[in-house]
Amino acid sequence: MSLSAPLPAPAPVRSAPPTAGRLLDFVRRTAADPELVRSLPLDPEGRTWIRLDGPGGSEAWLIGWPPGTGTGWHDHGGSLGAFATAAGGLTEDSLAARLPTEGWKTLELADGVDRTRQLAPGDGRAFGAHHVHQVLNESAADHAISVHAYYPPLPLMRRYSRSGPLLRLEQVERPGEWE
After folding, report:
1. Gap between the terminal Cα atoms of the chain
2. Which residue blocks in the chain are alpha helix, DSSP H?
3. 8 phi, psi to nearest 5 deg
4. How far apart are CA 171 and CA 162, in angstroms?
5. What's residue 2's pLDDT?
6. Can you say how many angstroms the Cα of residue 114 is from the centroid of all Cα atoms in its chain?
């Protein structure tokens, strides 16, 4: 009988960071959970939210949108993400252009960079790390509810104002300033 040295402990298994597609799958499944969607308190005056555990260490939110509310133009500080509508309807206006993240205050956007999409219940979309958009509940009467996920968790958000083709950086928010 021979004695052998003990085997080394196996290396911990690390899962790959979530992709935009995996985040989209998560937000669609979560938006289809009627019990969770009903648990969100709705306020006629302002948005409401519940923080969720997203896949692979991502940050996720269930958000309620009163009629006529929106986010304003913003980005996600280099995080990729996804969102899906659970109730009501949302409109997303986005830019089909990659913006520089530093060194500017005002940009003049070229013709043809604007995109608009309507997201009914069950509709979702994923986006990359340099996505600039605004999300709106354009209904005059009905709340909308959506699920959002970001990876890595949002390090910051840049907020912009828009006047025609001019986009202006207005503010940089850090975690805790939007929660």
Report:
1. 64
2. 20-31, 34-39
3. -65, 150
4. 13
5. 47
6. 19
